[in-house]
Design a protein that fits this description.
mainly beta; seven-stranded mixed β-sheet; four-stranded antiparallel β-sheet; 11 strands; 58% strand; globular
Length: 119
């Protein structure tokens, strides 16, 4: 299993920035990629970004492209999500999740961290 712990959420004004962290432990060698997702109240969970451990290949949702940056520190088994130019509609609980080698689904999830953007 892979354990994931998110941190870094908080309250920020529109236009501000936050940096989220996702620390992975356990069978991290079985993890191919880490993705960030978010869920706002009353809405479906949506994909935000993902990065592969090997090669650092990234992919973003159109809604965050150019504002959010995903990165990783392999030595620390940690993935980061830099959130810039935040908007009130970015308010959500942000989750990181691990996808295994050869798998399509994200099998392991963190507990989430709240991001609130005030207008």
């Amino acid at each position: 299993q892979v354990q994931l712990v998110e941190s870094g959420g908080g309250l920020v004004q529109a236009g501000g920035s936050l940096r989220l962290s996702c620390a992975a432990s356990g069978r991290t060698f079985s993890s191919y990629a880490v993705g960030w997702f978010r869920q706002a109240p009353g809405k479906e969970r949506e994909f935000v970004a993902r990065i592969t451990w090997i090669g650092g290949n990234t992919y973003y949702a159109d809604s965050v492209k150019g504002r959010f940056t995903i990165s990783r520190d392999n030595a620390k088994n940690t993935v980061f999500l830099q959130l810039n130019s935040l908007k009130p509609e970015d308010t959500a609980v942000y989750y990181c999740a691990s996808r295994g080698v050869g798998k399509d689904e994200y099998a392991y999830w963190g507990q989430g961290t709240q991001v609130t953007v005030s207008s």
